[in-house]
């Protein structure tokens, strides 16, 4: 895609997970995507942990569409959950389930 096409397209930047290295990735996402493409929106789903303070870097970010910081809770390991979301059947299944099942 050419830059002009991207500038006219809707872009969703979706970040899921902890802010462990956000001091490195956050500024480049803001400078190279959000400030360059006027139709880019940022969505974040992150656990509340010792690195959450790093999301403060977004205070001046343009088009922060949605941010959700949640308190992690244990997931009950029922038979269906274990069967479907094990490394054998879905390597990242538990992680994805964990982040999106707590809405």
From TrEMBL:
Domain of life: Eukaryota
Domain DUF7796: 7-101
Stored InterPro entries: DUF7796
PANTHER family per the UniProt record, alphabetical: OS08G0360500 PROTEIN, RING_FYVE_PHD ZINC FINGER SUPERFAMILY PROTEIN
Protein name (database record): DUF7796 domain-containing protein
């Amino acid at each position: 895609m050419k830059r002009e096409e991207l500038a006219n397209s809707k872009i969703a930047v979706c970040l899921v997970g902890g802010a462990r290295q956000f001091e490195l990735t956050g500024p480049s996402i803001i400078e190279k995507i959000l400030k360059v493409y006027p139709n880019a929106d940022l969505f974040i789903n992150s656990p509340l942990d010792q690195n959450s303070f790093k999301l403060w870097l977004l205070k001046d970010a343009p088009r922060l569409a949605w941010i959700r910081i949640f308190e992690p809770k244990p997931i009950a390991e029922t038979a269906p959950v274990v069967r479907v979301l094990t490394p054998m059947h879905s390597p990242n299944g538990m992680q994805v389930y964990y982040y999106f099942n707590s809405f």
